[in-house]
Amino acid sequence: MVERAADLIDADGSAALSLAALAGAFGVRTPSLYNHVGGLDDLRGALRLRGLEMLEQRLQRAAVGRAGRDALVAVAGAYRDFAHEHPGLYGLTLGAGGGESDTVRDAEAAGAAAARLVEVVLSVLRGYRLEGEDALHATRALRASLHGFVALESAGAFGLKLDLDVSFERLIDLHHRSLAERSSRG
Amino acid sequence: MVERAADLIDADGSAALSLAALAGAFGVRTPSLYNHVGGLDDLRGALRLRGLEMLEQRLQRAAVGRAGRDALVAVAGAYRDFAHEHPGLYGLTLGAGGGESDTVRDAEAAGAAAARLVEVVLSVLRGYRLEGEDALHATRALRASLHGFVALESAGAFGLKLDLDVSFERLIDLHHRSLAERSSRG
DNA sequence: GTTATAGCCTAATCCTCTTAGTTCGTCAAG
DNA sequence: CTTGACGAACTAAGAGGATTAGGCTATAAC
């Protein structure tokens, strides 16, 4: 159910998520969906959770067995790939944190998934021997750059024909060098 | 008209923009709005244009008379301030580039405003003696970081209590150092 | 003074989400 | 085998929101 909804949203954009469309995909009348989900907001909450969990899992996998620059590049690449493959899910993942009226369980689980996600990034930074507040600020900086890049990319906000892969590479390299420098100084 | 809509969207969030609410704010019935605007999509297009123009103007003002690090910090701060003061407008500004069916004029004007916006950032980078593709990649990196930061900030995605101003400062500093280094090497 | 236009209105249509109440089939307990 | 509970579908109905069509009035242009 949530899977089908995820397919819909990834294929046709976040605005295309409607109970009517979802019911159609199941060959069922709209009100019948209320036997399985609390409503549209609820469904969004479930999708958000799903997105966070998938993203976290991908980053985790990308990070395992790597350290330093390798880990950074792998995790960043995994992040961007996820956003490309699941634009709808990715969009919801960021949407208003505790938004409205998700199922309480979903909201809690989403918070936990988000925390694990930050954990993964932190673990990458640990490879640079960063700890404490420095690591937290660096995590924020990295998340901001990653999210900003894929968001602008998805929105088509990068007008020029300049190679996006190169831009992304450089952005990550920028972080790498800053982290390496900070690390060698500490 | 568009101004009132902008107030609405900044006060109550992007989802609260409805023709009904706008008509209410004017003490008028919903269909009457069609004498002034082509429809909801059209209104969004006009708002997007307005947001881009305001943002561009602010960055422009922040950059004038400054160079190098000063200019970078001022422009970045102006960017973040705008997003804080006009969260609704800012959100639309990024929304799908040529989205759907804006008025053609608006779409063109929005493209032009976006181009001018990039121009401002490029002019800041020129203070670092960056030119050509390097400058374009750096512009993308900077835009990505700025947008990502304010977007995550607005979404409440930065969970921890850690001071956001400090995080932002460090992010900008990161770009500054990278630019300065690149500049001294070139 | 007549006409054109701008801008408002009501009425009506079409969507979407949502709730309430009903029906039907399955499955376990007696 | 009967019966009762439960899950999951349905129809009916209502509340909003966008949009179109057609009609009324006032003001500005000739």
Jot down its keywords:
elongated; 8 helices; 0% strand; mainly alpha; homodimer; DNA-binding; 186 residues
SSE topology:
Two copies of one chain form a homodimer.
Chain A: H1 2-12, H2 19-26, H3 40-63, H4 68-85, H5 87-94, H6 104-126, H7 132-154, H8 164-185
Helix pairs in contact in A: 1-3, 3-4, 3-5, 3-6, 4-5, 4-6, 4-7, 4-8, 6-7, 7-8
Chain A binds a DNA duplex (30 and 30 nucleotides) through residues 18-20, 28-32, 34-36, 39-40.
Walk me through what this model shows:
2 copies of one chain form a homodimer. Chain A is mainly α. Helix content of chain A is 74%, strand content 0%. Chain A is built from 8 helices and no strands. Chain A is elongated, with a radius of gyration of 18 Å. In chain A, 39% of the residues are buried. The first copy, chain A, binds a DNA duplex (30 and 30 nucleotides) through residues 18-20, 28-32, 34-36, 39-40.
Sum this structure up briefly:
Two copies of one chain form a homodimer. Chain A has 186 residues and is mainly alpha-helical.
For the largest beta-sheet of chain A, the strand count, sense and barrel status come to:
none
Written as H for each helix and E for each strand, in order along the chain, the element string of chain A is: HHHHHHHH
Overall 3D shape of chain A = elongated
Radius of gyration of chain A: 18 Å
